[in-house]
Amino acid sequence: GGVRVKSGIMERPRIAVVGAGIVGLCTANVLLQSTYRPKVTLIGEKFSPNTTSDLSGAIVLPIVEGNIRSSDIRQQEWTRTTFKYLYDLFSSPLAGRLNITLLAAYEVFDDEREDPWWKDCVLGFRHVGTDELKMLHYPLDKGCWSFTTLLMHCRSFLPWQLEQFKCKGGMVVQRRIESLQEIDGDYDIVVNCTGLGSRELVNDQQLYPVRGQTITVRAPWVKHAFGYDTKYSTLYVLPRVDDVLLGGTADVGNWSEQVDPAHRWLKKRLD
């Protein structure tokens, strides 16, 4: 359902999008473009710059846990659609305001790997030879890929998305929701975009955090991204608009939002 008919007149459906991170904002904007002309309300406890999305890198590159050749057709389509959408913004006059740019990247790994399924989603994917790695002073391991992708600045992109939503007639409500039943009956459709918050909101116990800790430095001479992926850890260098992001960690099941001094090894390895 979603389209209500009253006295022979089709009414505009009422849709609530719960969660105001990047997924919630983009979903709300897409829904406003529907031919049904819905009344869309965005409900969130936190908005930019206080969301998890604000802290993202954010490089356009899919992560497939344990399966580099993902057979999930949906994820492949999501990746292509996202890349095209952001590339269109990069090619528009908005690129400067949103700080969306192309970024060359190298990814070195220490095992034998087949080409990733996303190689056709990025630009200029190729294998890098030993001589080039030596020139770049990168570790000489089993292999290396090079490609060009998109880099976006979430703290520029999220406020713009919210601005677009409001300009198109979207309604914004800032509140914490403990259960979707609180808004049951107020809307014809409810779209849950709360991410990890769904563990409590809808009791989805399959969700769990993977905590990351990074370091930011000022190094304007760094112009391309670098990743070193091993079975023990993943290190990366990601130049952004006003800093360089160094990472990272992946602590499965860790809910802490505080800096962990135990991860000082990260800085030592990156020095």
Describe this structure in words.
The structure is a single chain. This protein is an alpha/beta fold and 271 residues long. The strands form 4 sheets. Strands 6-7-5-12-13-14-11 form a 7-stranded mixed beta sheet. It has a 4-stranded parallel beta sheet with strand order 8-4-3-9, with helices on one face. The protein has a two-stranded antiparallel ribbon with strand order 1-2. The chain has helices at 22-32, 73-90, 95-98, 130-135, 154-167, 198-201, 264-270; strands spanning 4-6, 9-11, 14-18, 39-44, 101-109, 123-127, 143-151, 171-174, 189-192, 210-211, 215-217, 225-229, 234-239, 244-247, 251-252. Helices cover 24% and strands 26% of the residues. Helix 1 runs parallel beside helix 5. The model is unreliable at 1-8 (pLDDT under 50). A hairpin with a 2-residue loop joins strand 1 (4-6) and strand 2. The chain has 7 helices and 15 strands.
Count of distinct strands: 15
Mean pLDDT: 85
Percent range for β-strand residues: 25-35%
- The count of helical stretches stands at 7
| Main β-sheet description | 7 strands, mixed
Q: Radius of gyration, rounded? A: 21 Å
Low-confidence stretches: 1-8
- Which structural class should the secondary elements be placed in? alpha/beta
Distance between the termini: 57 Å
The H/E string reads EEEHEHHEEHEHEEHEEEEEEH
Strands side by side in the biggest sheet: 6-7-5-12-13-14-11
Q: Looking at the structure, what is the overall shape?
A: globular
Helical content stands at 10-25%
